[in-house]
Amino acid sequence: MTHAKTALLADRGVVRVDGSDAEKLLQGLITNDVELGVSHRSVFAALLSPQGKVLFDFFIARHGGSFLIETAAEKTAELVKRLEMYRLRARVDIEDASEKFVVQVDWHYAPPPEHAGQMSQMFDPRLPELGLRTLWGPGVASRLTEEAAREANATPADYHAHRIALGVPEGGKDYAFGDTFPHEANMDLLNGVSFSKGCFVGQEVVSRMQHRGTARKRIVIIEADNPLQTGTAIMAGQANIGTIGSVAGHRGLALVRLDRVEEMQRKGEQITAAGAALTIQLPAYMTPAVPAATP
Predict the structure, then answer these.
(1) Which end of the chain is more exposed for a tag (fewer CB within 10 A), N or C?
(2) pLDDT tens sequence across 158-210
(3) pTM beyond 0.85
(4) Final residue belonging to a domain, choices 166, 182, 207
(5) Structural domain of 226
(6) Whole-angstrom Cα distance, residue 98 to residue 77?
């Protein structure tokens, strides 16, 4: 039996969006449908550039009349600035609330105990195996940090090893913000994009990629006999076909050209990183959903 795991993620921050126009503002900007965020559910989504590339990826949870956006801690100030740019005359208040919240993840899995002041426990919308995400709020976060640090039976590295094994990427670790389409980050396969809700920033590009099947690059799972290193180029012969992102020992994630991977596999030739042979595996959630790339 696999025991439940609990870890605190210090590299995650929270942006709070309040006001009577908050839902309308977010619904017109992000890749997913805000209305999906009902009780015990969060919404996984991104805010794109007009060219359709991911600027921020995040989870959105409702709390009363507010929306809490959990994203990379290093991106919260930039996200606030970007949302303010789109706010115009909307009745919305936007703040970086990272200092007021602690992000906890539980997988394998047992729900954390009830606690006064706790924000909602939310099932990770990407995959059931990713368990729960909990935001501990004002009046709890500062005390919980010390308590949970003593009680947590896993580390952030354990959590990242878990998501790597599942083939679930994270922005800034497995793909570059501002240079990657949602399809390349597998967001279309991880419940991160709504193709039915209507317009959002970058929607035309995303819709075109969906209908034409033109995502030549995807994030895949890689393994090697030797420990992997983030940032190493992945080579098909003399051609660079991708870069290693997150790693956990001999396993990692990488954004690669699927057509070149298929070509090398047909020829029976090796794909390498730093001279070492790699094994490339599509995440279970990806097959058979990903069609061959259009020439």
Answers:
(1) N
(2) 999 999 999 999 999 999 999 999 999 999 999 999 999 889 999 999 999 99
(3) yes
(4) 166
(5) 216-281
(6) 10
